[in-house]
Amino acid sequence: MSEKDYYKILGIERDATSDIIKKAFRKKALECHPDKTGGDDKLFKEINLAYETLSSPELKNQYDNPNPFNGLNMGGNHDDIFAQMFSGMGGFGNMNININGQNVNRGPQKRSSHNHNIKISLRDAHTGIKKNLKITVVKNCLSCTSNCLRCNGRGVIHQAIQTGPFIQQVQTNCNNCNGSGIMKNGDSSCQNCNGKLTIEDEKIINIDIKGISSGHTIKFDGLGEQIKKNGEIPGDLIINIVLDQDPYFVRENDNLIYKCKLNLLESYIGKVVIVPHFDSNMTINSNIFGTIDFNKRYHIKGKGLCGKGDLIFVFEYEFKDVQLTDNQRVKLETCFKELNLV
Q1: Residue 239: inside a domain, yes or no?
Q2: What's the total number of domains in the chain?
Q3: Which end of the chain has fewer CB atoms < 10 Å from its terminal CB, N or C?
Q4: What is the pTM of this model?
Q5: What percent of the chain has pLDDT over 70?
Q6: What is the pLDDT of residues 239-254, one digit of tens each?
Q7: Distance between CA atoms of 131 and 211, rounded to whole angstroms?
Q8: What's the CATH number where 226 sits?
Q9: Per-position DSSP letters for 104-153, written without gaps between them
Q10: Do 193 and 143 contact (CB within 8 A), yes or no?
């Protein structure tokens, strides 16, 4: 905080609202105005500075919190400071955080995960499908490479530049390793990587998919970004299952929803519907449900996804615009009355 206590100068509490701050300023300004009351010019300037600071949310926040690095070890270089700030957020290796003079070990850093999408149909999710995925794991040759000492293997250098009360973070590529984070040791005679600095390892992953939904993920430990130095942990390979829309069914958990249109007559006498189910076509007469209520859903148990859920019929009314003669209206009304439909 500034050496001057702006709250004390205005005579207010630290939790004062903007209205209280404004009223306090006006009162103090009238009391201490040099031209009107002969007040102290220096004190009047302090009152104005206090008001300008506390009436601005941004300046007030900077005044109340002057040191954003409070609790961090400021004794090291700028890279050390930012390493402490961002430890555990990726890209900073195995670090210690200094809190109130005590080092807290955050443990080894895990490298980034790699993501891969696999698209399947709803039919595939029902019947099951096997996918073979060929991947190439690129490992850093630790025999002939090491982390760049200047950037600690990050590939970038962070600097904290303080200008007045502000501290700005500047990030630049490390010119010692050209942003790679690793340095080559010795010559190109390494037998492990033949001087390429990396080792490629091809793997075939077999994935069995059945009954899962869009958004489901499958994790393969250690097949993501590989370590750059000893003590790190390789990242993972994350397989994301993306489910395509089906032309006939909508999935609802383990249920399969099938929509069918009926006209007014069919809603009473029934309609034969051929359902293109994944197991085999199903022939259903809607009259098994009785008179159809277009606001209801009708279930056939055990015919949902993988036999777990239900096959659900949603019937939609197929309206037909017909111009009836007077004679036809009489016949229709008579028929409806005979059947107690009105």
Answers
A1: yes
A2: 3
A3: C
A4: 0.54
A5: 81
A6: 999 989 999 999 998 9
A7: 14
A8: 2.60.260.20
A9: EE--PPBPPPEEEEEEE-HHHHHH-EEEEEEEEEEEE-TTTEEE-TTTTT
A10: yes
